[in-house]
Amino acid sequence: MNDCKHEPKKCPRCNGGFECKVGDVANCQCNGISLNEEQKRFIGEKYRDCLCRNCLLELSKQMGFFKEKFDVTSNR
User: Fold this and answer.
1) Distance (Å, whole) CA 19 – CA 1
2) Which of 6, 44, 50, 68 measures 20 to 30 Å from 60, CA to CA?
3) What Pfam families does this protein map onto (predicted)?
4) Does 73 have pLDDT greater than 70?
5) Are 18 and 12 in contact (CB under 8 A)?
């Protein structure tokens, strides 16, 4: 018996629809997106459900940009 869960969801950030494949993560739309612990914590605190691939990618890039832009420890 196959226990794979595929669930239609609405992204809480952009309101777009996508299919979450929590029972088959290798084929889920979020597979392959790398987030560091700080990014995961930020997203987990701000959103209570899965985000779509586009939003995850956008946030991962934005957070890296802002971290670089506002890094007060660098000597530029």
Assistant:
1) 21
2) 6
3) Cys_rich_CWC
4) no
5) no
Q: Give kind and range of the element (H or E) at residue 46.
A: helix 37-46
Q: What is the mean pLDDT of residues 17-46?
A: 89
Q: Where are the beta strands (DSSP E) in 1-76?
A: 7-10, 17-20
Helix axes 53-69, 37-46, angle to 10 degrees: 120
54-66: average pLDDT: 81
Two tokens at 31? 């597979």
The strand pairing partners of 9, in sequence order, are 18
Is 58 strand, coil or helix? helix
Enter the tokens of residue 50.
Answer: 């899965």
pTM of the full structure? 0.73
